[in-house]
Amino acid sequence: MKILWFLTCLFTLSLAQNDPINTRRFPKNLRIGVANAAPQIEGAWNVDGKGETIWDHFAHTYPERIADRSTPDIACRSYEKYKEDVAMVKAMGLYHYRLSIAWSRILPTGYVDNVNQLGVQYYKNLFKELRDNGIVPMVTLYHWDLPQPLQDQMGGWINETIVDIFADYAKLCFELFGDDVKWWITINEPKQVCQSGYGSLYFPPAIEASGTLAYVCSKNVLLAHAKAYHIYDELFREKNQGQIAMVIDATWYEPGSDDPLDIAAAERAQQFDIGIYGNPLFNGDWPQIVKDRVAERSKLEGLSESRLPTLTAFEIDYIKGTSDYLGLNHYSTQLINHTAEFPIGKPSFENDKNVIYWHRDDWTQGSADWFWDVPWGLRKFLVWLKNNYNNPEIVITENGFSDTSGTLEDDNRITYLEGHVSACLDAIYYDNVNLTGYTVWSILDDWEWGGGYTSFLGMYKVDFNDPERPRIKRKSADYFTDVVKRRCLVEESQCVDQ
Ligand code: NOJ
Q1: Which pLDDT tens digit goes with each residue over 101-116?
Q2: How many domains does the chain have?
Q3: Is residue 37 in a domain?
Q4: 267 classed as catalytic
Q5: Is 16 inside any structural domain?
Q6: How many angstroms separate the CA atoms of 70 and 64, rounded?
Q7: Ligand 1 centroid to residue 105 C-alpha, Å
Q8: pTM, entire model
Q9: Ligand 1: which residues within 6 Å by Cβ?
Q10: What's the CA gap between 498 and 202, in Å, rounded?
Q11: Annotated catalytic residue within 42, 189, 254, 418
């Protein structure tokens, strides 16, 4: 009994531990930047020929599904104020600016036969502004804003025709912007595109089919990404010398105890959340545990085929190796426990995954019930990616703290950034993770999808009540500017050079 008590205390202590802040100077190849996305900051939703997106449509049609009934119609007005945004990035001394192209701003119908020159010009102007200021663009082609006609006409990501339509759009972007952009992201957070879009009512197209259509979406997203990658590889790489990748999002799942069942449950959760995309991209095919579990439950549901679509040998080969680096969006850690098999009933992704989530009460919470400030989770995650995907180059494409207060004295955000950058340095220096980029989400507050304007992640506040949308510096902006300048988390006198 005493031994059990001792082990429990030891385990609890190890979960609570706060690692000391890493004092090493950042390695020279670690690029530091900030991220945002067109639908969340640009506004001008129907200006200069831009077409409607699924998020415009959703916010206008179902205001009750957005926390404050807001829309992205105006957002931060970055369509007009982009020069101001670039000046802020420059003032912070950052290397890169991650932004997204709004598909429907350059192709209002989604198809390449109808190019909106004013939309093209907007991004050309933005890239020129970045170039003139010595800031490197990192560009996402798809940050959730599908042109609405593609949803209406063919069902969006669950129709395999999307693979060719997306690839045509990607090719056009490589042609138009390839001289300026060397750092491409095809699709942002496929898990949200598929599992939220085809698994909940709070993310368009808001179809509840997480155990069925969402898996079809996953397959199409992977094929669309791979096709864009091959086009870049064959037609543009030699001339443009860029890199192209998919960005995967995931929470780190820490076993809730050292019981082998909890350890297996945490690994299973990891494979369902990240492995569905990471395994096909880096190892080939869906993770075995995902194939086995979905097939088993499909059988118990009386289905003759697994709900998880098969990847053919050709498709496996076509997708494998199509990410020049691993783009990672990471915000939080959760604890995972094993649980008895969920009853057979309506097919669902969570039932296929079959785990229990929890967290420690002493973790600082962000704006959601899954958002906790746990820096050591990021370090463990980076090591997991290194081990599972054959030591890829990793770029953190999003990381940051979300709160609901919007305070200018954002000490929680400073603590979060300090802890997470420190965890990156630990992973680089002690675990030999090949991490070459770290990107804060975000420089500005933005329209947070279903959260509307009720949760804030910016190092600059945006006053959404003022028609001018002024940007107001938070304490974290000064903190991070200093860190970027020193390339060290601690005072110059304590900083250790390599
Ligand atoms: C991930 C998404 O890519 C981004 O659009 C969102 O704003 C952040 N998470 C923060 O919630």
Answers
A1: 999 999 999 999 999 9
A2: 1
A3: yes
A4: no
A5: no
A6: 9
A7: 20
A8: 0.96
A9: 37, 40, 188-189, 329, 398, 402, 441, 448, 457
A10: 48
A11: 189
Q: Is 84 a catalytic residue?
A: no
The overall average pLDDT reported for the chain is 96
| Residues 100 and 78 sit within 8 Å (Cβ to Cβ) | no
Pocket probe for ligand 1: among 248, 251, 398, 449, the residue whose CB has the most ligand atoms within 8 Å is 398
Longest CA span, the chain: 73
Query: What's the CA-to-centroid distance between 113 and ligand 1, angstroms?
Result: 31
Cα 301 to ligand 1 centroid, rounded to whole Å: 35
Q: Which residues contact 266 (CB under 8 A, 6 or more apart)?
A: 253, 254, 255, 256, 336, 355
Q: Which domain holds residue 478?
A: 21-494
CATH number, domain at 381?
3.20.20.80
On the question of pLDDT at 7 being above 90, the answer is no
Integer Cα distance of 397 and 34 in angstroms: 8
- Rounded to whole angstroms, the Cα distance separating 234 from 232 reads 6
Contact 41, 446 (CB under 8 A): yes
For residue 204, the CA-to-ligand 1 centroid distance in Å is 15
Residue nearest to atom 11 of ligand 1 (CA): 448
User: Measuring CA to CA, which residue among 147, 191, 162, 155 is closest to residue 56?
Assistant: 147
Q: Is residue 478 part of a domain?
A: yes
| 446 falls within a domain | yes
Q: For residues 116-121, give the mean pLDDT.
A: 98
User: Do residues 130 and 98 lie in contact, with contact meaning Cβ atoms separated by under 8 Å?
Assistant: no
Structure tokens at 36: 């945002």
pLDDT band at residue 18 using 50, 70 and 90 as cut-offs: low
Choice among 254, 398, 418, 448 that is catalytic = 398
The rounded Å distance from CA 417 to ligand 1 centre is: 16
Give the model confidence (pLDDT) of 139-192 as tens digits. 999 999 999 999 999 999 999 999 999 999 999 999 999 999 999 999 999 999
Indicate which atom in ligand 1 lies nearest the CA of residue 247.
3
Nearest CA to ligand 1 atom 7: 448
Identify residue 349 by its one-letter amino acid code: F
Quick one: which atom of ligand 1 is closest to the CA of 451?
11
